[in-house]
Design a protein that fits this description.
By secondary structure, the chain is mainly beta. It is built from two helices and 47 strands. The protein has a domain of 100 residues: Sandwich (Immunoglobulin-like). 2% of the residues lie in helices and 39% in strands.
């Protein structure tokens, strides 16, 4: 939980209450019939498979501000936000800049900027592409595009990059959410009027012409996420509202595509984030399930800060992950669901516990439930204990928060394809390498090529050198036999949890290493067990030097040497 609001809103400190509020969830709200067969405890941490992108960051264009939103059309990534310059990968801030006014695109395969460079006079808050891939819709705070009037929403042809001139509706407030069909586009935001007709934060505009339709549901607060269900039966609406059509709807609702009439949607009875202190931040789909993310920054709300997966037809809950820390965006890939935010406590899903110094800005979860959430014991948070939950995956890229918005955040958006994952926000580096605002990850085959070409750094075990070096304790027993006990902490890595540990010994002044011990172990950054080995094959009055090697699938790291003299 933290006081973070999207866009230009300032950050404030959170307020926690002393009382916890258990949340009872009826069995009828769950869609998975096998939920009762799952373990009653959280599932184990999942090791990424070959179908998961690696945390190796690929060279990608950069920006000087913040990116709020992205969408991928074939091999082009469109990025919207608040920025005025872009530059190539590897260029430091202020060098090699080219003008890009709040909207740009780059090649997903190479990370190189395209020539697409419209001039928008205000920030972009939302992007959507038509299912046929020919139309790009852009929403935000702007009122002109390359000098022509386009009040808060515009349409572009993806084939040419040109704005559609006849699509210029009059919208009297910010457009913060979009969902496109092949014939129209749903818009949501903070507006109350479209084409001089009353439309309370939701409207439907015709493709190419922006003709206003009769679709006119009313939301009494900001709309920040829209999704047409894959079966084209309903529109899912997310945001900070408390009513839809004057009916109770706490930040999440389903409405008909034609009239906007409110429909039942089970997850909305559990995930309640409609308030000035909370909201739904994104809605996405993999073609079958709906995934939603949210945030809370005041303990009086006490609801979901993580992500949910729900049935597209009924809204019945597949699972919930309730890592504490606002969650801004999710992308459901083929084998994992990736999220961005600032999760600082994933204990209830079997992950890392609360640590004021540990914030992970990008995480991955299994797509299926593997267990049930543990009971929440943290003050000021809702209790989803007993709800089916996915497994947290051992995938932990590091993003350094940026300063552009003053909110101390890193990634605000995540999108992807079968082979690539794209993150966008205001971060300053990725895995310790300078990279501002945009980055890409890929499957291992692509990552390995980038590493071989010197374009990316491999993700080896994280602890090495002096920090990895064992401590040595040597003894002599009553019979004069000498031994050395070596102690160290297990290593960890951003993309693996199983390691091989090898102790090498150098006898006397020899430069020839002798392997004296090999073992394997499982660990994560929050769970580094103590390890040890006792070497008894030693001679008196002989100096020995030890070195520890830790290996995983990505490679090996070495500790500093430890020198001992058993009889000293």
């Amino acid at each position: 939980m933290s006081r973070v609001r999207l866009g230009r809103r300032a950050a404030r400190s959170r307020v926690l209450l002393a009382l916890a509020l258990p949340l009872a969830i009826a069995a009828s709200l769950f869609s998975a019939p096998s939920a009762s067969a799952l373990p009653l405890t959280p599932g184990p941490i999942a090791q990424p498979s070959a179908a998961i992108v690696t945390p190796v960051a690929l060279p990608t264009a950069q920006i000087d501000g913040v990116a709020w939103t992205q969408v991928i059309v074939r091999n082009t990534v469109y990025v919207g936000g608040s920025f005025t310059y872009a530059r190539a990968a590897g260029q430091p801030a202020g060098k090699g800049r080219v003008r890009r006014y709040n909207l740009l695109s780059y090649n997903l395969l190479t990370g190189v900027l395209t020539t697409f460079a419209p001039v928008l006079n205000g920030q972009v808050r939302a992007l959507a592409v038509s299912p046929d891939g020919t139309r790009l819709y852009v929403g935000g705070d702007f009122t002109t595009v390359s000098g022509a009037s386009h009040q808060h929403v515009a349409e572009f042809l993806t084939t040419t990059g040109k704005v559609v001139p006849n699509f210029h509706p009059t919208v009297n407030g910010s457009v913060e959410a979009l969902a496109a069909t092949n014939t129209a586009v749903y818009i949501g935001g903070a507006f109350t009027e479209v084409n001089r007709a009353k439309r309370y934060r939701l409207a439907l505009l015709g493709r190419d012409t922006a003709v206003l339709t009769r679709f006119a549901p009313e939301a009494n607060g900001e709309v920040r996420a829209l999704l047409v269900t894959p079966n084209h039966t309903k529109l899912i609406v997310g945001g900070a509202f408390t009513q839809i059509n004057h009916l109770s709807a706490s930040g999440l609702a389903a409405v008909t595509l034609s009239t906007g009439g409110k429909l039942p949607f089970a997850v909305a009875n559990v995930v309640k984030l409609g308030s000035k202190y909370s909201g739904i931040t994104s809605l996405t789909t993999d073609g079958t399930s709906i995934y939603g993310t949210g945030y809370v920054y005041h303990a009086t709300v006490r609801n979901l800060e993580g992500m949910f997966s729900a049935n597209q037809n009924t809204g019945a809950i597949n699972w919930i992950e309730d890592c504490h820390g606002d969650t801004y965006s999710a992308y459901p890939g083929a084998s994992a669901v990736y999220v961005v935010g600032h999760a600082h406590d994933c204990a209830r899903v079997g992950g890392y516990p609360q640590d004021a110094t540990v914030f992970h800005r990008a995480l991955a979860f299994t797509k299926t439930a593997t267990g049930h959430l543990a009971t929440n014991k943290a003050v000021g948070y809702a209790n989803f204990g007993g709800t089916p939950s996915p497994s947290l995956m051992n995938w932990f890229p590091d993003l350094t928060p940026g300063k552009y918005t003053g909110q101390g955040q890193a990634a605000w958006s995540v999108v992807g394809t079968g082979s690539y994952l794209a993150l966008a926000g205001e971060f300053l580096d990725v895995n310790g390498v300078p990279q501002q605002g945009l980055t890409r990850f890929s499957l291992k085959a692509v990552s390995n090529k980038a590493i071989a070409a010197g374009q990316a750094k491999p993700q080896l075990p994280m602890i090495s050198g002096r920090e990895l070096a064992p401590t040595a304790t040597y003894t002599v027993d009553a019979n004069g036999a000498v031994s050395t006990k070596l102690n160290w902490l297990a290593d960890w890595a951003r993309d693996s949890e199983t390691f091989t540990y090898t102790i090498s010994r150098y006898d006397g002044g020899s430069t020839q290493a002798k392997t004296v011990y090999t073992t394997t172990g499982t660990s994560q950054f929050w769970n580094r067990p103590a390890m040890q080995f006792t070497d008894t094959d030693l001679l008196p009055d002989t100096q020995y030097r030890y070195r520890l090697t830790v290996s995983d699938a990505s490679g090996s790291v070495l500790s500093d040497s430890v020198i001992v003299h058993p009889m000293s």
